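MODEL INPUT / OUTPUT PAIR
PAIR INDEX: 1
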Amino acid sequence: MRIGVLSLQGGVVEHMNHIRELGSEAVEVKKIEDIKDINGLIFPGGESTTIGKILRERDMLIPLRERIISGLPVWGTCAGMILLAKEIENDEHTHLSVMDIRVRRNAYGRQINSFEITERIKGVSENPIPLVFIRAPYIISYGDDVKIIHMVNGNIVAARQNNILVTSFHPELTENIEFHKYFLSMCII
């Protein structure tokens, strides 16, 4: 199985290492041709406005949106969640607009407010897993087709809508591979 990782910013190497650890091929995605033969795509963290701008400059936004709408499994972590959302609070501009969620960016505050907790996530892991939040967004509203996977202190931090998975936190920044395993299970055709 070949899993692409959008390689413009963020924890690219960390995501790729986890994918390889699970026995799959990890592919850097820097241009639209790189998504031709992949089974899934990860949008890592970073700065969503900058990543969106680069996607537009490289004419990747519309072809990516079309691939996702046609069923390509995707996972957005942190900024990736913002890129995939149909609505961003206090911002009239969106990016890929493929998941029926409204997100609040930097919902937990600034860099200094970053934190890590360990929790069990039903359906993902039987054991507690570390969740790393860095200037993280969370979901403030969602459509009927969106399944909530996990909440922290009443805030939605992980959700799925068909072939689209989003997390506020960064599983790639831990040694735990359970969330990557969960995403790979979405990519099996």
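PAIR INDEX: 2
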Amino acid sequence: MALKRLLQLVFTWWNGATAGTLLTTSRSGQFVGEDEFGNRYYRKPGKDRTIGVERRWVIYKGEADGSAVPPGWKGWLNQTVQVPPSEEKYQPREWQKRHLPNLTGTSGAHRPQGSILRAGERPAATGDYQAWTP
């Protein structure tokens, strides 16, 4: 089992952090906080010479999925806000929906009317469509 985990660290990026990310995190990463999904957020204080701003990153709990980052943390990662959600009392607005991960490929995925994966009848054509014929 240890060999499998070692190979995943070296050769895959979708199963969590790679060996390079873990090395960078241990050497120069400053822990900032953790979200409700168990994702951990880090930064390297000071401006990075290559990007001109502070470098920030996330180590996902489990499979790497960008949609698993809540809005407050997304704003911090993208340099939209400077104060991370762990250092402020973030209260979602009443119009904001609860965060959901990307449901594509699951039973909870959006299936519009007319989809072959949705139950029911497909709506009739409205007559504004003309099939192309060569």
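PAIR 2 NOTE: The first strand starts at residue 30 and ends at 34.
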